[in-house]
Design a protein that fits this description.
219 residues; mainly beta; five-stranded antiparallel β-sheet; 2 helices
Length: 219
């Protein structure tokens, strides 16, 4: 049942995700998302540093006009945070939530007003590597650095074979599978290690078992 629920969530979100554009400098950077009416974007705010170990809702999002919501995957379902003009971010119980931290290397779903341009910004991380604990099953993550990420660049220490990456292509998901000793392959069994996940885009990682996922600085 859990797998069915997660698969449904993937399908529901896939239909409404739009592309992102990102620019960055040596010290600071920003990503701009244009949100369609009632639509979602898979944002990667945690590619920028703020609070130690991540970035808060207050630190990362600007250009919000009211009505925006952020969906943070917690391993089973979503924690939902809403923005109210003049008041800030609140959780589902209407408790202030602007200090909620999104950890480095994670991704979120963002939805809001039509044609609103929500800006994510902050310092470009300078650490040599970032390590995140990932659980068995689906993890909503991103490259913690604002650069494109090849599948071959993903650290494989925690992989045993059978892991999958789901990358949104504008309509549905492109699925890539890892085979121990052979590498990444697409659905047609074509080698896919050189496939790049664009800057600013999150992705789903399906893990066979729990472990630590390491991202190394590529600039």
């Amino acid at each position: 049942m859990k797998k069915i629920i997660i698969a449904a969530a993937l399908t529901a979100c896939a239909a409404v995700v739009t592309a992102q554009t990102v620019t960055s400098a040596n010290i600071v950077g920003y990503a701009k998302n244009v949100q369609p009416a009632g639509g979602f974007v898979m944002a990667a705010p945690a590619q920028f540093a703020g609070t130690a170990g991540g970035v808060t809702l207050d630190e990362t999002f600007s250009g919000v006009v009211g009505g925006e919501q952020v969906y943070v995957y917690n391993g089973v379902t979503y924690d939902i945070y809403s923005y109210f003009t003049g008041y800030g971010w609140f959780d589902g119980g209407f408790a202030p939530a602007g200090g909620t931290v999104m950890s480095e290397g994670t991704s979120v779903w963002l939805t809001g007003a039509p044609a609103a341009e929500t800006i994510m910004s902050g310092e470009v991380p300078s650490a040599a590597s970032v390590t995140n604990a990932v659980s068995a099953g689906f993890n909503l993550i991103s490259n913690p650095y604002p650069v494109a990420l090849k599948l071959d660049d993903i650290d494989l220490t925690a992989f045993v074979g059978g892991e999958q990456v789901f990358v949104f292509n504008g309509l549905t998901y492109d699925i890539y599978s890892y085979f121990a000793g052979y590498g990444w392959f697409d659905g047609g069994f074509t080698p896919a290690g050189s496939v790049e996940i664009p800057v600013g885009q999150g992705f789903w990682l399906s893990m066979v078992g729990a472990g630590d996922l390491v991202f190394n600085k590529a600039f």
